[in-house]
Structures
1.
Amino acid sequence: MTVETTPSLPKQLLAQGRPLDLSASALGELRQTRGGGVTRAALLERLDADGYLYLPGWLDRDSVLATRRDLLERIAALGWLAEGTRPDDAEPSQNVTRRMLNDVASQSGILQRLLYSGAMIELYELLFGEPVRHFDFTWLRAYPPGPGTGPHIDSVFMNRGTRTLLTAWVPLGNVDRHQGGLAILENSHRLEQIRAKYGDLDVDAYCLDDEHADAAASSQTLLWNGTISADPVALREELGLRWLTADFQAGDVLTFPIYTVHISLDNTTTRLRLSSDSRYQRASEPADPRWIGPEPSGHGSQSKIGVVC
């Protein structure tokens, strides 16, 4: 296992429209884990120490690029790409507002094979030390220019099953930080104040005695957006930690547990940012029912639960 760094930070990065502090005390590089034959013990030690594993080149680059071509052709068929442009250019049309393409993800056999067989399953069987299962729901994101996702942990979206759940963020093509790559808040997996005050919340839970309880119970969408803060700059300053990111390449995998705080940076380019989120766990442990089965309910009305507040 070797550690490498990517040189030369860019002159400006945005998160939720706010310029990030680019000083070394506020922004850094994700630590890379490379090398064939890496041991389970070494991976687990680093995952525990850092709260993430950044694995450049874990996936076959040609397979990732073939997946990207398939997805962009499907996206072009939806009218999401600018007229007269090549799908590979990923130039969005002006009317693109949706960012999630779950239906496209389920229809793309090449994406399903990339995420749920071969090197990906080998990674999680190595980390968990036993057979694994994945969520049947795949988060496929095609982000046009504009804001990324706000600071959050995954627990609030998927904590009705095992908490020993790992997320995989996979850039589907080269995604540099200007295009909206992921950023991890350094050492945030150790912040008990966030886990205690926020980590046990559920974006699909509502108060039974609230005057709007009936509307919440029938809602087909999130009851709140799940973010810790609307301002990733202020959050970092308050906690005294650094945002860590990288210029990602096709074939890279970034994986982390559900208590690691992360964002996606704003996309300040003219192209769509294409990436996927997928989740993996021990097959022997319970899975969040919102994300499994042939037609997962996700955040629909079937997933809403009333709680005593």
2.
Amino acid sequence: FYLRAIRETQQARGTETMRRLDALEGRVMTMERTVEDLARDYTTKEEWLRESMLARRQLERLTEMVARMQAQLEDGQGLIGHLARATEAMLELARSGAAGR
């Protein structure tokens, strides 16, 4: 009976040890996935500098484009003013020509 009790105790401990090892293995795999996700989410300093310089260049180009568009709009408004004055002069000529008949 004594040897049987020892064997059953060893079997129970072996089963418990296997269960704990399986749980530990699952936790290690979860931790590995978490570390991989963190590595993917964070960039190195060099990558960050490269990306920030690219964003800065793109921002500078966008600023230049907006400035050109603003200048073109201002020139267009001046042109619209000239066209409006020319249209008014033509209308005045047409009125005076119609009144002179």
